[in-house]
Amino acid sequence: MHDTDNTLLSYFDTASEGFGDRLRAVPDGRWEDATPCTEWNVRQLVNHMILGSRIYTSLLRGGSSAEFMAELHQDVLDGDPATTYRDAVAECRAAFRAAGAFDRIVDYPFGPVPGRQLLGLYVVDAITHTWDLARAIRLDERLDAPTVRWILDSFEWIYHGVSESPIADSDRYYGPPTQVPASDASEQDRLLHVMGRKP
């Protein structure tokens, strides 16, 4: 495996672990709280992240885009959320680390992409939803700075050929960009702006 691929895998670990850290801190009684994702409460957001890990694992192992879309709204919170999330992430990590996974073209529903690019899509989703969860229950909103910088530097590559994205004329799955950030805005705030958030 190339050093660059090891670096990509480190972003996966950082992004997934950042969400897991906030998830373990969710107090009892806060699962119905609203999140910046207006259609999801905290429980639904966590469900999305678990489901996302499982679906990406399926894609990397030959699953189809039709299966992806069919499973998109399942409820998979059938036990301790933190444990369920940890197990789903571990399986997804193993799928990304499997021989040939980065170069395999997967049937992503918004355009076929190599596994390497799919990992980039995962990282953006995990980082963005880490902030969503932190904002929802008033936890530490600071995201990993090197990962945020990598996303900003890699945005065009991550979303190349992807029809539903923050850089396409579509806000079906992404909120439209919020107000233009100030010229001295942090990299984190710039990313959140592009992802339709209001830091």
Structure description:
With 199 residues, this protein is mainly alpha-helical. It has a two-stranded antiparallel ribbon. Helix 1 runs antiparallel to helix 4, helix 2 packs parallel to helix 4 and helix 5 packs across helix 6. It is globular. The mean pLDDT is 90.
Concise structural overview:
The protein is mainly alpha-helical. It is built from seven helices and two strands. It has helices at 3-24, 42-60, 65-70, 81-97, 115-137, 145-158, 187-194, and strands at residues 105-106, 113-114.
Task: Walk me through the topology.
Layout: H1 3-24, H2 42-60, H3 65-70, H4 81-97, E1 105-106, E2 113-114, H5 115-137, H6 145-158, H7 187-194
Antiparallel strand pairs: 1-2
Q: Tell me which oligomeric state these chains represent.
A: single chain
What's the count of strands? 2
The overall pLDDT, averaged over residues, is 90
Strand order of the largest sheet: 1-2
Radius of gyration, whole Å: 16 Å
The coarse silhouette is globular
Between the first and last Cα atoms, what is the distance in angstroms?
A: 37 Å
Strand percentage: under 5%
Largest sheet: 2 strands, antiparallel
* N to C succession of SSEs: HHHHEEHHH
The total of helices stands at 7
Q: What structural class should be given to the helix and strand makeup? A: mainly alpha
Q: Helical content, roughly?
A: 40-55%
Can you tell me the residue ranges where pLDDT is under 50 for at least 5 consecutive residues? none
